[in-house]
Amino acid sequence: MRFGKYYGAFSGLVVYRASLLAAGKGRAGRRLPGLKKAQREWCYHSRSRRDFALLLLTADFSHTHCDENSLGSSLAVSRNTLKTIIREAEALHIAKLAQGRRIVICRQFVADYMTSYLSEWTLMESPTSKELAVAFKQMAKKFDPMSVMQAQERALQMSVTSRAETVNANRKRRLTERKTTGPMDLSSWVVSNSFNRDLLLLLMSAGIEERPLNIADIMRRLHVSRNAVKASLKIGIDSGFVEKSPRGFKAEKTALIGYLDWHGEVFSAYSDETLSAFSVFYDSLASHEIK
């Protein structure tokens, strides 16, 4: 419980992210509002397509490049699946093949994605934004004042980069240690299918708000079949990180605390400049300076 003093802010962030998974709005939910419909639906059609976009965006921010080999390794997909993803991305003007088997993201898509991503963050409620602004300012050893525009660019890019870092199949910063025997660990469960990453948010939010979810609600919000949801929940229950009650399903308390602590571990690795940028960004959201 190293980061217990920030659990309120981290909890608000988790509940906000889960709220974006709204029923009746497709797999994307309320995420990336304003992005072209076909691109938006493609980005959330599957985990591998969403992660493909995140990796290319991160490469663009750092002025590096991705090739087929590195993408295939990070996404842990077959060569044929990757080729299909690339063909689809080219058809939708998301990315294109370049020399040396490099995959390059399209400039217009970057601009449209980041504009839509900013619109997504403006959906956060002001009290949550304010609490996060305070938390990030306290986490910085030395607060670095900056303009709202500077903070916005830094915070948005870092948010995308942080999400991309959780994509890599061989990532170092896992929520739980990999198990080779016995029940499945939580980090392995999260990437074991196309929807568990979103299901994790729903279950953690349900645990925070003490509002267990029933299977029908999960099906509506994630657009997956009853059998798929039941199978995934069963693994979670058998592994000890999902709690079942007559009211429904939610994250088990120890797993929830570990999840919130993991947020603290990730954020504490940020530089003072980045922590300050997040603080200014969330404060501007709370005061509606960014719309």
Could you describe the 3D structure shown?
- The protein has 291 residues and is mostly helical.
- The protein has 14 helices and five strands.
- It has helices at 7-19, 37-43, 47-61, 68-75, 79-91, 107-121, 126-139, 148-165, 186-190, 196-209, 215-222, 226-239, 253-268, 272-286; strands at 66-67, 95-97, 102-105, 242-245, 248-251.
- The protein is globular, with a radius of gyration of 19 Å.
- It starts with 6 loop residues before the first helix and ends in a 5-residue tail after the last helix.
- The mean pLDDT is 93.
Strand order of the largest sheet: 1-3-2
Q: What is the overall shape?
A: globular
Which percent range fits the helix content? 55-70%
The pLDDT mean sits at 93
Class by alpha and beta content = mainly alpha
Give the uncertain stretches in residue-range form: none
Terminus-to-terminus distance: 35 Å
How much of the sequence is in beta strands? 5-15%
Q: What's the number of helices?
A: 14
- CA-atom Rg in angstroms: 19 Å
Give the beta-strand count. Answer: 5
Largest sheet: 3 strands, antiparallel
SSE pattern:
HHHEHHEEHHHHHHHEEHH
Task: Give me the secondary-structure topology.
Blueprint: H1 7-19, H2 37-43, H3 47-61, E1 66-67, H4 68-75, H5 79-91, E2 95-97, E3 102-105, H6 107-121, H7 126-139, H8 148-165, H9 186-190, H10 196-209, H11 215-222, H12 226-239, E4 242-245, E5 248-251, H13 253-268, H14 272-286
Antiparallel strand pairs: 1-3, 2-3, 4-5
Helix pairs in contact: 1-7, 1-10, 3-8, 7-14, 8-14
